[in-house]
């Protein structure tokens, strides 16, 4: 099998993982804002997420000749390593729960803030656990100040959300009571859409939401009318509660994977080699897939948060955005695999630097979804402070990289 051995190779894996893990949430959010049910999207995503793990196992996990100390993927499938397999599958379970929760949190809190809060909680709890599991190969005097920076980023992320929610409420309160959810905000868009644009929309069958300027009250209403998860009138505490639950789940998956591949608690029988990253990732992804299928099929018939009911037949017929959902699964799968490959070489605590993914997600959130457009100066100051603290935290965390012997 192929093994990443150098610190430089580990950093390359982390950077690629950072881009993939920061992009797939934006793809999922895009589909929800276009009205696709999250249950349908997540079922598609789960299929290719597992496919990515299988591809990695059959390629990197099968490169070279299998040896006693470094068995290839197929060799390890028949070995007596069930305790390590259980740790890997437990990691997949908590990751699946976290990903499922964030799918709903994005609608309530926004892509940028959700990713910052969940990633920061992941680092504060998960990185501390990985530091001790990795036998302290990372530099504590550098690592823990970086963890502290992530903790500050959590507080700033919550403040950004509260400030932005207040800005949006002020915009909506300025509207006439005639413009409510479910009604087109035509009058509101007079200053943002030209007559020519409106005539063209009627000819092409397009809605005014595509032309409303991001950040305006009309834009907010049109997004609410289109999206699958309706959030107007619901407490922002719901979104924050879901976000913190997701962050707690995310904080556990990397330590569980660490235990699966390095057997720090000595649960394997003598002479049985540790699970390779690729075998562990395969079992990790299988459990993630199984739980996602069970929960999302259940949510088709018993939806949460007042979503409409669906069915397996309706899901199979829903091809609107399916290609994007499948792409999101591949991005997440390869992103997680690269994170684990880098973590096995440089320490899983340092590999948590990929939790810088909110930097990528925030870019997509602003570019694609118009987040924070026409917000108050207070919101912009808080957003800038949050991102700055996040960049500092990631740089410090990468600087703490060690080398596993």
UniProtKB/TrEMBL annotation:
<keyword id="KW-0813">Transport</keyword>
<feature type="transmembrane region" description="Helical">
    <location>
        <begin position="380"/>
        <end position="399"/>
    </location>
</feature>
<dbReference type="Pfam" id="PF07168">
    <property type="entry name" value="Ureide_permease"/>
</dbReference>
<feature type="transmembrane region" description="Helical">
    <location>
        <begin position="323"/>
        <end position="342"/>
    </location>
</feature>
<keyword id="KW-0812">Transmembrane</keyword>
<dbReference type="GO" id="GO:0016020">
    <property type="term" value="C:membrane"/>
</dbReference>
<feature type="transmembrane region" description="Helical">
    <location>
        <begin position="348"/>
        <end position="368"/>
    </location>
</feature>
<dbReference type="GO" id="GO:0005524">
    <property type="term" value="F:ATP binding"/>
</dbReference>
<feature type="transmembrane region" description="Helical">
    <location>
        <begin position="108"/>
        <end position="130"/>
    </location>
</feature>
<dbReference type="InterPro" id="IPR030189">
    <property type="entry name" value="UPS_plant"/>
</dbReference>
<feature type="transmembrane region" description="Helical">
    <location>
        <begin position="43"/>
        <end position="61"/>
    </location>
</feature>
<protein>
    <submittedName>
        <fullName>Ureide permease 2</fullName>
    </submittedName>
</protein>
<keyword id="KW-0547">Nucleotide-binding</keyword>
<feature type="transmembrane region" description="Helical">
    <location>
        <begin position="142"/>
        <end position="161"/>
    </location>
</feature>
<dbReference type="GO" id="GO:0015505">
    <property type="term" value="F:uracil:monoatomic cation symporter activity"/>
</dbReference>
<comment type="similarity">
    <text>Belongs to the plant ureide permease (TC 2.A.7.19) family.</text>
</comment>
<feature type="transmembrane region" description="Helical">
    <location>
        <begin position="81"/>
        <end position="101"/>
    </location>
</feature>
<keyword id="KW-1133">Transmembrane helix</keyword>
<keyword id="KW-0067">ATP-binding</keyword>
<keyword id="KW-0472">Membrane</keyword>
<feature type="transmembrane region" description="Helical">
    <location>
        <begin position="280"/>
        <end position="302"/>
    </location>
</feature>
<dbReference type="GO" id="GO:0005274">
    <property type="term" value="F:allantoin:proton symporter activity"/>
</dbReference>
<feature type="transmembrane region" description="Helical">
    <location>
        <begin position="12"/>
        <end position="31"/>
    </location>
</feature>
<dbReference type="InterPro" id="IPR009834">
    <property type="entry name" value="Ureide_permease"/>
</dbReference>
<feature type="transmembrane region" description="Helical">
    <location>
        <begin position="236"/>
        <end position="260"/>
    </location>
</feature>
């Amino acid at each position: 099998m192929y093994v990443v051995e150098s610190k430089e190779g580990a950093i390359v894996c982390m950077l690629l993982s950072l881009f993939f893990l920061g992009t797939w949430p934006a793809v999922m959010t895009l589909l929800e804002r276009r009205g696709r049910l999250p249950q349908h999207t997540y079922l598609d995503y789960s299929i290719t997420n597992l496919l990515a793990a299988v591809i990695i196992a059959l390629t990197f996990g099968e490169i070279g000749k299998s040896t006693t100390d470094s068995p290839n993927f197929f060799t390890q499938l028949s070995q007596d390593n069930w305790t390590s397999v259980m740790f890997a599958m437990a990691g997949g379970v908590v990751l699946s729960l976290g990903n499922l929760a964030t799918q709903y949190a994005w609608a309530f809190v926004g892509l940028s803030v959700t990713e910052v809060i969940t990633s920061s909680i992941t680092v504060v709890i998960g990185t501390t656990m990985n530091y001790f599991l990795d036998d302290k190969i990372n530099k504590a005097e550098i690592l823990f100040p970086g963890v502290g920076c992530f903790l500050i980023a959590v507080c700033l992320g919550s403040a950004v959300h509260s400030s932005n929610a207040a800005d949006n409420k002020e915009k909506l309160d300025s509207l006439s009571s005639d413009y409510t959810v479910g009604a087109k905000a035509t009058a509101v868009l007079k200053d943002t859409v030209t007559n020519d644009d409106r005539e063209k929309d009627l000819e092409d069958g397009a809605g005014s939401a595509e032309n409303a300027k991001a950040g305006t009250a009309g834009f907010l209403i049109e997004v609410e009318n289109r999206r699958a998860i309706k959030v107007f009138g619901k407490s922002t505490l719901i979104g924050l509660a879901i976000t913190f639950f997701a962050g707690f789940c995310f904080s556990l998956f990397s330590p569980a994977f660490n235990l699966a591949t390095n057997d720090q608690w000595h649960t394997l029988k003598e002479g049985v080699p540790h699970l390779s990253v690729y075998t562990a990732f395969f079992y990790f992804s299988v459990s993630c897939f199984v739980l996602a299928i069970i929960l999302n099929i259940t949510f088709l018939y018993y939806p949460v948060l007042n979503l409409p009911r669906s069915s397996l037949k309706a899901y199979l017929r829903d091809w609107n955005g399916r290609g994007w959902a499948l792409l999101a699964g591949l991005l997440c799968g390869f992103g997680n695999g690269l994170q684990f490959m880098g973590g096995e070489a440089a320490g899983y605590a340092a590999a948590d630097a990929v939790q810088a993914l909110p930097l990528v997600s925030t870019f997509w959130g602003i570019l694609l979804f118009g987040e924070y457009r026409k917000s108050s100066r207070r919101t912009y100051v808080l957003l800038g402070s949050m991102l700055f603290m996040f960049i500092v935290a990631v740089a410090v965390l990468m600087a703490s990289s060690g080398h596993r012997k």
